[in-house]
Amino acid sequence: CPPLSPLSPPSPGAVKVTPGHSPADLALARAQGLPLLSVINEDGTLCPPGGGWLQGVPRFAARPQVLAALAERRLLRGTREHPMTLPLCRY
């Protein structure tokens, strides 16, 4: 994925970049000079970079709060189930 630039064509949406989850995203974040932030504490609660209003909230409890906040601001277009397969490491 080439780095974004001011000359990149306009996009109708947003791109989620998760440098801690993908080597490609890490390269993109570094190329763009993005800070590497941790939004979830080791105990599974959200910390300030994840939204100060969610600080200390368990991650699974935060999801409905985020959806409600988006809906309240009329920024939520909808939700749908998305099955995921997460690879497991045996080490």
Automatic annotation (TrEMBL):
Compositionally biased residues, Pro residues: 1-12
InterPro entries cross-referenced by the UniProt entry: Val/Leu/Ile-tRNA-synth_edit, Valyl-tRNA_ligase
UniProt entry tagged with the keyword Coiled coil: no
Organism domain of life: Eukaryota
GO CC annotations on file: cytosol
Molecular function GO labels: aminoacyl-tRNA deacylase activity; ATP binding; valine-tRNA ligase activity
Keywords: Aminoacyl-tRNA synthetase, ATP-binding, Ligase, Nucleotide-binding, Protein biosynthesis
Biological process terms in GO annotation: valyl-tRNA aminoacylation
Disordered: annotated segments: 1-20
UniProt key word Calcium: no
Protein name: valine--tRNA ligase
SUPFAM superfamilies linked to this entry: ValRS/IleRS/LeuRS editing domain
EC number: 6.1.1.9
